[in-house]
Each structure stands twice: as structure tokens, then as C-alpha cells.
Design brief:
The protein is of the alpha+beta class. The protein folds into five domains: 142 residues, Beta Polymerase, domain 2, CATH 3.30.460; 128 residues, Up-down Bundle (Four Helix Bundle (Hemerythrin (Met), subunit A)), CATH 1.20.120.330; 87 residues, Hydrophobic Seed Protein; 134 residues, no CATH class; 199 residues, no CATH class. It has 32 helices and 15 strands. Strands 8-9-11-10-14-15-13-12 form an eight-stranded antiparallel β-sheet. A four-stranded mixed β-sheet has the order 3-2-1-4, sandwiched between helices. It has a three-stranded antiparallel β-sheet with strand order 5-6-7, covered by helices on one side. The radius of gyration is 32 Å and the shape is globular.
Length: 760
């Protein structure tokens, strides 16, 4: 007698509560369902119950559907029979995806529907007549093979569309384990291509990677309330613990490593399928011509091969020449070519000029570098060329700024650097620095300092002379200097420029750092880089270069004539001009305490992000200029902003009320964030105290900070606001009523406490 739905549900719940993770759990879930469904079908003749999907492959997750096909031979009572099967499953609470077909109907559906065909390729007999299952499986596989020249291109197109939608699993902070590129679906696609007898079945490495993702998916389903295949940030720590990883970083590294193995295998499969399809359209007896593209390297049939006279045993530079040729010609390696290159001899230390030149040529190839590095990495060549690569390989960066793992970020930065390499005097140093600027990540301590220490070994090993090695060390050590100073310090303060010039002592290195900053920021993503930051970095680099050339420290930009004319009128005015990455909004009013706070509050109410601020004066009129960008949507009505500021100057109560309402509206959920950090320093400017605040962004934050400064009787001479994802770094140059720095320790302590309270 078959178990009742409640008994099956109870047995399943007990299994999920007690069963081990991984393959044993999947086997237990499969066996439990098989036994129950066999009981439900009983000894009914003329039908066969097939499992498809994850259940058919014997790799179900706790939240997977029971994906079933009831096959029959034209029974008139099939609907009634199916209801006796489907209803108990629904009553058990398990999700069900079902269909009823005759063999001819199932074959017909598969011939016209790719998804149905892929499902039936994995069909597995569960209960009923096994002969009926055998007939259906035979016809499905025969039809798939006979139509492979049509169906496999459909499969490639469908996979590409899916991957375009879901992205690359290896480089996503919250990727879909099933659907993204490198996910479970790609292994299913490889198996489908193998079922057509066009390619080999998934390799052992791919099967191991597949099992890693299955294990993680299983524990993800057991962790979240509603089963999902997307590994969300808030679930990663618990899933890591359940899967036996040390922390979420280890979990994401495992996901990335598995996904990269699968994605690489699918790319080889897709290429092999495309060549097979193409070969059917041309005369098979005529081999594709071989075209030399480098010493010992040829192109044939759209792939990189080694020439007949290539010396793989005695030519250690061959691997770099082949890699550079592949990247420069935007060609993939033939799989057997990679295998031969992986067995080539190690490079002597230091590298020869030919080896170093080939390496630089590889780095300068642009976007094709990405696939070439991935190919080299998959067969272990990258860690042989650069042993330090192993530590950053698939190393996750769990913050909102970065899009990629550390190793992929290094490659993406190099791609961006290649676009500007011809504009610098030493493109080779720029490309190598871009490729290695974050090589120190993942170790204890500041990654820039650690990376610089590593460059003291890496650069001489690559054959760079002492002077070039020193420059590379400086580029890695100081790769964040220009963006940090440009977005957090007053560039009109002479001390700011002189401090940078003391650290970077030649103009060539300044120019290399500027190009590296642009490449690094662009590769990181929109949250870390924009036109405004690029403009600020360029401005700082020009000022420092001018000082290093012997020119005097640049003076602050004079007030523009039209702004001076407005100030001379002695009335409030608001001037708006388009600027880099947003707008430049200049407010002119009689100087008084709290002006910056008033302006900041009005800008926040009108959904404008402040990215920078500076102040000057014409007589008793304060001229305050803001660099702003719209938070979302279209720019506000500038007339409405003008009216709001004018009203707030007369009475700030209304502005504070609107800010409070807006903050309440957007504070809908609690966020777990790091505590704010406040610093007050008198050594960063000769004439002002520099306040730096790092905190989680929120509505009206700049207003609250500026209000605290005003309440303590201080005047803001200039301000810089930098957004880093959901975090902000605000810097204020402030002076007291005597236009001097704040030096009283008690006042500094009180100010620090008040600022922390304002952002807590």
C-alpha cells in the first residue's frame, strides 16, 4: 500500500533535517521519491513514469520540482490515471511539473521544442513498463543525433542568450548557480552535445566542478525560506558553514573556480560543435590552410596551433609567443596546443628580452587578452609563469565596488590600460603594473604595500633593470594615491600638491599613475569611477607634473567673471552650468554661518548627489560651488531649487522638516554596516583643519555633517565628497572665526563626538 502524502512529506522533512549534504543527500532524495512514485503507479500496465530535469539526472536539490512525464500507449483512461498520481504529489506539498504523452506525441514535441528535447534526453525510468521507456529514449536520442546539425546551433544560441541575461557566475557577487555562465545549465548543454556524438562527455574536472555547485545549491535550498538558485549576499555565510567552507570568501572562491572550469569547457564544446556544423558545409577532403602568425605558431581553421618545427622541449619562450599571437590575432587555442604548451620548459630567470617583449605584447592585445589568460589559467600555465597568481586566482572581492574576482579584475584593468598605452612614454611599464597592481590582495596588511614588496621579486625575475623595477614597485605601491587625493583633498591647497610631489618625484611616473588610475577605476565599475573622478585625477596629475617641472605651485582658480558680476549685485543668486558627469551649481549669498548645511539640505531634498564643494568670497558675498549629479531620474527644476534655497536662508525649519520626511521614506530597512570613522587633522593643510568622515550613505548626511560644523562656529572653506558604492568619504577644510586651524584639543574632541553622533 502506498504511503499517504503526509507520510511522504514527513519522511522527506526528516531526511532534510538529518541527511548529510552533497551527493548522499541527492541520492536519498531521489530514492525516496522513486519508492513513493513506484508505490503510487503500482502494477498499472501500458504506462511508464519518467523522471526528467534534476530529478531525472538524480541530482535534485531540496527545492527542486518533481519533473515527471507519464507515457502511455493511447489509454482512454489516462487522464483519470494521471489524477490518481498528480493529486497525491500536490497534497504532499512538493512542487510538480508534469505532462502526459504517447511516444509519438513526446517525440513530436521534442522535435519542435528545444527545452522539451533537452529534458527528454535526461529521461529516466521510475515506474511502470520499462520497455515503453526504452522505446521513447531510443527514439529521442536517434532524433537528436539525426537533427544535430540544426539542434546544436539552437542550443548554442539559447545558451548564449541565457548567459547574456544572467552574467558570468565566476565574477558575480550574487550569481545564479544554475543559470549563469559556468553554472549547472552549461554542464547540461555539454551533455546534450555529447549525446549527439559530436563531442566527448564532460571531463572528470567538469564533473567535479558540477558536484561543487550541486552541493552548494543543495545547502542554499535548505538555508533559505523560499528555495532559490541565486546565492545572495545575506545567505553566503550560513551556506559556507553548511558546506564546510571556512567563510563566505572560501565559498565564493569555490563557486568561481568551479564556474570557470565549466565555462571554459562549454566554450571549447561550443567551438567544436560550430566547427563540426561548418565542416558539413564544405568539402571534407580539403584540409584548412595553415598560416604562420609567429615563430613556431600557426593559425588553422580559426585556431592557434604549433607549427611542425616548433621546439616544445627546448624553447621556453614559445608559450609566451603563442599566447601573444593568439591575443593579437584574437584567436582561440586548439585544445591539444594548450596541452603541448603546458608541458613546455619553464622560463629561465631572469626572463630574456624576447620573453618579456612577448609578455608585454600579450598584455597589450586589449579585450582578447581575457580569453587567452583564461585558457592559460585552465591548464596551469599562469601559475607556472607567475607563481604569485595562485593566491589571487578566483579570489573574491565581497563589496559593492568590484564586479570581478581579483585575478579577473587584474586582466580587465590591463585591457583598459591597453587603450591608453600609446599615450604614455613607457607602455610596457603601464601594462605590467596594471596586470599586477592588486597582486598583494588576500594577504595580511595593506595590499598596496604587500604588492610593492612582491614586485621587488617579480620585476627582476621578469628581466626589468633596477630603474624599471623601482618604477613598477612605485606604481603598485601608489596606485590608489591619485584617486584618493583627488577626491578627498583640496587641490587648491598648495600643501596637497607638494605632498604628492614628494611621494612621486618624476613626471613620467605621475603620467603612468594617472593612466593606471583610469584603467583601474574603469575596470572596477561605475560605483568606483565616473567622468567627475577622472577629471579630478587628471587635474591633480597636471598640477603635480607642473610642480615637478619647476613651475610654482598653481594658484586657486579665480572666480569666473559672470559669477563675480552676480556677487557684485549683493543679492542671492543661483547659477547652474552643465559639467563633467553632472552639473556645477553655484550659490551666491551674504556670508553667514551654516551656508553649506543649508545648501546641502536643499540639494538632498531635490535628489542631487554632491560630489564636491568649494567656497570663495567677493566682499561680504560667499560664492559656493557644488559639483552635483542626479541621484536618479531627470534633473530637478532649477527654479524650484532656487526658491527652496532662498526660503531656507530665511527659515531653515521647513527644510529640516522635508529632509526628515525624505529620510523616513527611504529608511525602509535596517542595514548592517560598519561604524562611522571620523578623523580631524592639522597636518594636511597649512591654513585649515581637515575633517574626514567615512560612513554609510544616507539621505541628508552631508546636511547633518555641515550642520555640526556650523554649530561649532566653524566655516567650511572647501569640501570633497566621494561615493564608494553605498559608502561615502566626506572631507571638509574648516577654519575658526579667526580664519585659522582648530588647535584646541577639547574643541577637537567635542567636534569629533558630534560628527560621529550625526552619522550614527
Amino acid at each position: 500500500m502506498a504511503r499517504t502524502p503526509s507520510e511522504f512529506a514527513a519522511a522527506r522533512a526528516e531526511l532534510l533535517a538529518e541527511a548529510p549534504r552533497g551527493a548522499p543527500l541527492r541520492a536519498a532524495l531521489t530514492a525516496l521519491a522513486d519508492e513513493w512514485l513506484s508505490e503510487l503507479v503500482g502494477d498499472t500496465t501500458g504506462v511508464s513514469l519518467l523522471a526528467v530535469g534534476a530529478y531525472g539526472r538524480r541530482d535534485p536539490a531540496p527545492g527542486s520540482d518533481l519533473d515527471l512525464v507519464l507515457v502511455h500507449q493511447g489509454r482512454s483512461d489516462i487522464a483519470a490515471l494521471a489524477e490518481k498520481l498528480w493529486y497525491p504529489i500536490w497534497d504532499s506539498g512538493v512542487k510538480l511539473d508534469h505532462s502526459m504523452r504517447t511516444v509519438d506525441e513526446a517525440v513530436g514535441v521534442a522535435s519542435g521544442d528545444l527545452k522539451a528535447a533537452l529534458g527528454l534526453l535526461d529521461a529516466r525510468h521510475v515506474a511502470g513498463d520499462p520497455a515503453l521507456t526504452s522505446v521513447l529514449r531510443t527514439r529521442i536520442h536517434e532524433g537528436w543525433r539525426s537533427q544535430a546539425h540544426k539542434r546544436l546551433p539552437e542550443l548554442i544560441a539559447a545558451t548564449a542568450a541565457r548567459e547574456e541575461r544572467f552574467g558570468e557566475l565566476a565574477y558575480l557577487l550574487e550569481g545564479d548557480i544554475k543559470e549563469a555562465r559556468g553554472g549547472l545549465r552549461d554542464v547540461h548543454a555539454i551533455r546534450a552535445a555529447a549525446a549527439a556524438w559530436v563531442v566527448d562527455a564532460p571531463s572528470e574536472r567538469v564533473q567535479e566542478a558540477y558536484a561543487v555547485l550541486l552541493d552548494i545549491r543543495g545547502e542554499l535550498h535548505r538555508t533559505v525560506r523560499r528555495p532559490t538558485d541565486r546565492l545572495m549576499f545575506q545567505d553566503q555565510d550560513l551556506v559556507a558553514e553548511r558546506c564546510g567552507y571556512g567563510d563566505a570568501d572560501e565559498l565564493l572562491a569555490a563557486v568561481a573556480g568551479a564556474a570557470r572550469t565549466i565555462a571554459y569547457s562549454w566554450s571549447l564544446t561550443a567551438r567544436q560543435v560550430s566547427r563540426w556544423v561548418g565542416s558539413r558545409k564544405r568539402f571534407r577532403g580539403r584540409p584548412a590552410p595553415r598560416r604562420p602568425i609567429a615563430d613556431g605558431v600557426v593559425e588553422q581553421d580559426g585556431e592557434v596551433h604549433l607549427s611542425a618545427d616548433a621546439d616544445t622541449e627546448n624553447d621556453p619562450v614559445l608559450v609566451l609567443r603563442a599566447a601573444a599571437a593568439a591575443a593579437q590575432h584574437n584567436l582561440p587555442f586548439a585544445p591539444h596546443t594548450l596541452e603541448r604548451l603546458a608541458a613546455s620548459p619553464a622560463l629561465p630567470e631572469p626572463w630574456s628580452d624576447d620573453a618579456r617583449d612577448s609578455f608585454v605584447a600579450l598584455l597589450g592585445a586589449g579585450a582578447p587578452l581575457i580569453d587567452v589568460i583564461e585558457s592559460l589559467d585552465q591548464v596551469g600555465i599562469m601559475t607556472r609563469l607567475l607563481p604569485e597568481w595562485q593566491h589571487v586566482r578566483s579570489l573574491p572581492q565581497r563589496n559593492a565596488l568590484h564586479r570581478f574576482t581579483v585575478d579577473r579584475h587584474l586582466v580587465e584593468t590591463t585591457v583598459q590600460a591597453a587603450e591608453v598605452a600609446r599615450r604614455v612614454d613607457r607602455p610596457d611599464l603601464l601594462l605590467v603594473a596594471a596586470f599586477l597592481h592588486d597582486i598583494g590582495k588576500g594577504f595580511e596588511g595593506d595590499h598596496s604595500i604587500v604588492g610593492a614588496q612582491m614586485m621587488e621579486v617579480i620585476a627582476p625575475r621578469m628581466g626589468f633593470n633596477p630603474a624599471d623595477s623601482a618604477t613598477l614597485r612605485t606604481l603598485v605601491l601608489e596606485h590608489l594615491l591619485l584617486p584618493i587625493v583627488a577626491t578627498r583633498r583640496d587641490l587648491d591647497d598648495p600643501l596637497t600638491i607638494s605632498r604628492v610631489a614628494e611621494r612621486i618625484t618624476d613626471r613620467g611616473t605621475v603620467e603612468l599613475l594617472r593612466a593606471l588610475s583610469v584603467a583601474d577605476g574603469t575596470a572596477t565599475g561605475a560605483a568606483a569611477w565616473n567622468e567627475w573622478k577622472a577629471g579630478m585625477v587628471g587635474d591633480l596629475a597636471r598640477r603635480v607634473s607642473a610642480v615637478l617641472s619647476g613651475a610654482p605651485l598653481p594658484l586657486p582658480d579665480p572666480i569666473e567673471p559672470h559669477l563675480r558680476t552676480l556677487a557684485d549685485r549683493g543679492e542671492f543668486a543661483l547659477d547652474v552650468q552643465p559639467g563633467v558627469g553632472g552639473f556645477r551649481v553655484t550659490a551666491i549669498a551674504r556670508d553667514r554661518p551654516g551656508l553649506l548645511a543649508t545648501y546641502a539640505g536643499a540639494l538632498a531634498v531635490h535628489r542631487l548627489d554632491v560630489r564636491g564643494a568649494s567656497a570663495s568670497s567677493v566682499g561680504d558675498m560667499a560664492v559656493t560651488t557644488f559639483v552635483v549629479a542626479t541621484k536618479y531620474g531627470d534633473p530637478p527644476s532649477w527654479a524650484a531649487l532656487r526658491d527652496a534655497i532662498r526660503s531656507a536662508l530665511d527659515d531653515s525649519a521647513g527644510l529640516e522638516k522635508r529632509l526628515a520626511e525624505q529620510e523616513k521614506t527611504y529608511a525602509t530597512v535596517d542595514k548592517v554596516v560598519a561604524p562611522p570613522w571620523v578623523s580631524l587633522r592639522n597636518d594636511l593643510s597649512e591654513s585649515a583643519t581637515v575633517i574626514e568622515v567615512r560612513a554609510h550613505d544616507s539621505v541628508g548626511l552631508l546636511y547633518r555633517l555641515a550642520r555640526v560644523v556650523a554649530d561649532h562656529g566653524l566655516d567650511v572653506r572647501s569640501a570633497k565628497v566621494a561615493s564608494l558604492g553605498a559608502e561615502v568619504v566626506d572631507a571638509f577644510y574648516v577654519v575658526d572665526t579667526a580664519a585659522a586651524r582648530v588647535t584646541d584639543a577639547t574643541k577637537l574632541a567635542e567636534l569629533e563626538s558630534a560628527l560621529i553622533a550625526a552619522v550614527a
